[in-house]
Amino acid sequence: MSALVRPTENRMIAGVCAGLARRFGTTPGTMRVIFLVSCLLPGPQFLLYLALWILMPSERRTQATAW
């Protein structure tokens, strides 16, 4: 499994779904559909997305610190 980061490619808004898809071995499109369907259920899904946007490091930032 790869690290939980927001990738620089396959991003739509912030790259959260693309990062989660890469981490769990699925496609970004599948993860986006799962997120959209989960928004139909009651709960704090949108707030969780915002929190992940803030907390997940960008792949660009992690590559810069690796050098």
Provide key terms for this protein:
mainly alpha; single chain; 67 residues
Can you give a write-up of this model?
This protein is an all-alpha fold. It has 4 helices and no strands. Helix 1 crosses helix 2.
Unreliable spans are none
Largest sheet: none
Count of DSSP strands: 0
The whole-number mean of residue pLDDT values reads 87
* Number of H/I helices: 4
Name the shape in a single word: globular
- Proportion in β-strands: under 5%
Query: What structural class is derived from the secondary structure elements?
Result: mainly alpha
**End-to-end C-alpha gap:** 22 Å
Please provide the ordered H/E string of secondary-structure elements.
HHHH
List the helices and strands and how they pair.
Blueprint: H1 16-24, H2 28-38, H3 45-55, H4 59-66
What's the short version?
The protein is an all-alpha fold and 67 residues long. Helices cover 58% and strands 0% of the residues.
